Request: fold
Amino acid sequence: MTENDISERLQQQQLITDSVTAFARRELSPAALRSGAVSRERWQGLAELGLMGMMIPEDTGGLGLRIGDLVPALEALGRPLLREPLVASAVFAGTLLSKTASTEKGAELLARLAEGALLPAVAWQEEYRLEASHAGTMLAASGEGRILTGRKILVVPGTDIDGLLVLAGTGGGKALVWLEPQAKGLRIESGTAADGGAIATVHFDKVPVDTADILSVDAGDLFDEALQTTTIAACAEMLGLICGAIDMTMDYLRTRKQFNRTIGSFQGLQHRAADLFIQQELSAAAIARAVADFEATTDAKGRAIAASRAKARVSSAALIVTKEAIQMHGGIGYTDEHEIGLYLKRALTLSAWLGNAGEHRARFAQLTMGVAA
Reply:
C-alpha cells in the first residue's frame, strides 16, 4: 500500500467516524441500554450510515472495506453504550453472508441486511467453551429432504430477530443454514444477559430445511474467519465503552467537591485515574496491532492469534476500568440509577462473549508456544 493509499484510507475512516460520532451524540445514550430493547429505527439509522455494508464486498453491493475501517466507528458507538447488535448481526452475520453471497438466498439476505431491513442472529455455540467443536447440532438427510436437530446457546440477539444463521455438523464437515423464527420444530428460549440484553437458547427438533436455505456445506473455514473478525470488532466496541466510562469518571472528579476542593485535585485519585488511562492506551494499542496482523495475513492461525491477543487484553481492561470507575464515583456509583453501573454491565457481557480473557490467553499461548496457559 502506497503512502497516498494510506492517506486516502485514513481520510475515509475519519469521514465515517465523524458521521458515526454525530449519530451517536444524537441518537444514543447509556439510558437506551437500560431498556433492553433493540430499536428498529436506530438499526435503520445505522444502515443509512453505511455501517451494514462496510465489509460487504463491492461486487455484492457493499463498500468493500476492511475491519480496520470499521474499528473507529465501533469505538465511537461503544462510548454511549450501543444497544443494537451491530457486531453480532452486521459484522458476524454479515461476514458469513458475504462469504455465501454466490447462493441466491445468501445474496438476498445480504441485500436486506445492507438496507437495514434484516436483523439476523448467528446460532453457533453449544458449550461454554470457546475451543469446543460446536458441531453437535446435525443437519441430516430425512427422506428426500434435510432436517436439523440439536441445540445452540448464547445466541445474540435473543429476541425480535428476522432469522437465524445456524452452524451445523454434517458428519464430515460443517454447514451454514438459514432458518426463519417460525420454522416448524424451532423453539427459542429467551434469557437476559448481564447488561439487560436478550440472549437465547435455541432448540431444533427435526426442523425441516429447504435446500435453498443451505448456504454452505463447507462452512468451517469461512466461519472461523468470521468469528475472528467479529472478535476484533467486539474489542473495538469495548474500547469505546472503556473511553466512555473514563470520560464519565473524569467529569465526576472535576465537579464533585469535598473539603471545598474538587476531588480530582486529590493526588490519590489522580494516580488511580492515570491507571485507567494506561488501560485505555494498552487496549487501543492491542487492537491496532491485532488489526494490522489480521489484515496482513490470510492464514487462519495468524487471524486467531491476532484476535485472541486483542480479546485477552481488552476484556481484562474493560472490567478493570469499569469496576474502578464505580469505586471512584463513591457511593452514588453503586446505585442502580447511576449510568456508570451500565458500563460495568456492558463490559461483563462483552468481555465474556466470544470467549473471555482467560480463554483467549490460553488459546494465544497454545497457538504461539504450543502449550496451554
